[in-house]
Amino acid sequence: MLNDSAIWKSLNSPSRLSLIAGPCAIENEKLCLRIAASLKKTCDKLGINYIFKASYDKANRTSNQSFRGLGLENGLQILARVRTDIGVPVLTDVHTEQQVAAAAEVVDALQIPAFLCRQTDLIAAAAKTGKIVNVKKGQFLSPQEMGNVVKKAEAAGTKKICVTERGTTFGYNNLVADMRSIPIMSRFGYPVIFDATHSVQLPGGGGDKSSGQREFAPVLARCALIAGANGVFIETHPDPEHALSDGPNMIPLAEMPRLLANLVKVHTLAREAK
């Protein structure tokens, strides 16, 4: 498996597509290992830089009746198993400064959730670990405002920063993906990732849960690569209809090889067209 410097270098490579992907929440160890192994096989074949993603806690679910995950301790144990057994870098969300140190002992990259992207102390804590920090743009922020978020991470002593577009609030229960945000955030000098599956989420659209339109995720992913994104973020599951979190957004695992092969072609064409 790549070390921290090699992972960061791969994310900055203009010649290879980067993918952050996995299930929304850690449901169990078997699921995570299955998804990671499948995606690694596909990404190795296609020459994609792959980072596995799953959350030990979904702290901002619509309802307190919704599944949140297995918790910090159990979740990190599973992520460690994925990292060692499958041999892929691992990313997970952190929600408080207290979680950062424990997560940084296990994972290769820390993610600041969109709703927490302005939490200065959380960003600083993540940055000070020396790990790659992926900050999702809040649904309530313009892409220009993410420049201030990047400066917070830089002030804490890191240059290993990614920014992720995941859609902007568009009225009630809807998001819109503005592709202008890709070149705008690229001006900050760091890799820009496009979150294809959360961008088709319909927040709260299911009443006590969010809904989504997964059929549009591939369309937006292709658009983002043409717009200059370094990589894509995609949540996937063998059976999205029975997933415990964000099922309506997620791409069925069986469809990922074909989708990724298509995205590699789009990524190549986008670079050749520059």
Automatic annotation (TrEMBL):
Compartmental location: Cytoplasm
EC number in record: 2.5.1.55
Highest taxon above the source species: Bacteria
Record's keyword terms, sorted: Cytoplasm, Lipopolysaccharide biosynthesis, Transferase
Record-level GO cellular component terms: cytoplasm
Cross-referenced SUPFAM superfamilies: Aldolase
Family from the record: Belongs to the KdsA family.
Protein name as catalogued: 2-dehydro-3-deoxyphosphooctonate aldolase
Lineage: Bacteria, Pseudomonadati, Verrucomicrobiota, Pedosphaerae, Pedosphaerales
